[in-house]
Amino acid sequence: MKSERAYVDYTLDKRATLVALFQGKVDACDADPYLLLAAKFHGVKVQRPCPVCKKKSLVELKYTFGDQLGQFSGRIKSHVELAEMETKFGEFRVYVVEVCRECSWNHLCASFLLGDGKERKRPRRQRTLEDDDWVKR
């Protein structure tokens, strides 16, 4: 992606968490059920094995957050969608999370900013399924 900036790598934090996990000080294999569902249906498989169970079931999710995204902040996006979004929005943050579908390991891998840098208003709120009356009943 062309506009990627302010990249933060969380590898050192991941190492510290793994050391604490293997020493029995923390339980890091505690992924939220919604995170596991997101990993199942939206995760992108990676080549590296899980650092805990060593199986090849590790996937990455890319969450987007930002004021300019409006109601669509907090959604999972693919690499192609992120490439499209970086020209449509001024600035938003992407969080890359790795999740193991076997042992429930999850950790934040990286975060970075995307966007063309131009200040924009939030998009108008669009009607969604949650807004319909039949869902509220």
Question: Describe it for me?
Answer:
The protein has helices at residues 11-22, 33-42, 79-88, 133-136, and strands at 5-9, 44-45, 58-65, 75-76, 92-100, 106-114. Strands 1, 2, 3, 4, 5 and 6 form a six-stranded antiparallel β-sheet that branches. With 137 residues, it is an alpha+beta fold. A hairpin with a 5-residue loop joins strand 5 (92-100) and strand 6 (106-114). The chain has a domain at 1-17 and 48-117. The N and C termini lie far apart (43 Å). The chain has four helices and six strands, in the order E-H-H-E-E-E-H-E-E-H. The model has no long low-confidence stretch (mean pLDDT 89).
Separation of termini? 43 Å
User: Which class do the helix and strand fractions yield?
Assistant: alpha+beta
As a whole number of angstroms, the C-alpha radius of gyration is 17 Å
The largest pleated sheet is described as:
6 strands, antiparallel
The helix tally amounts to: 4
Order of helices and strands: EHHEEEHEEH
Low-confidence stretches: none
Give a short synopsis of this structure.
The chain has 137 residues and is α+β, with helices and mostly antiparallel strands. The protein has helices spanning 11-22, 33-42, 79-88, 133-136, and strands spanning 5-9, 44-45, 58-65, 75-76, 92-100, 106-114.
Write the layout of secondary structure elements.
Layout: E1 5-9, H1 11-22, H2 33-42, E2 44-45, E3 58-65, E4 75-76, H3 79-88, E5 92-100, E6 106-114, H4 133-136
Antiparallel strand pairs: 1-6, 2-3, 3-4, 3-5, 5-6
Q: Keywords for this structure?
A:
137 residues, alpha+beta
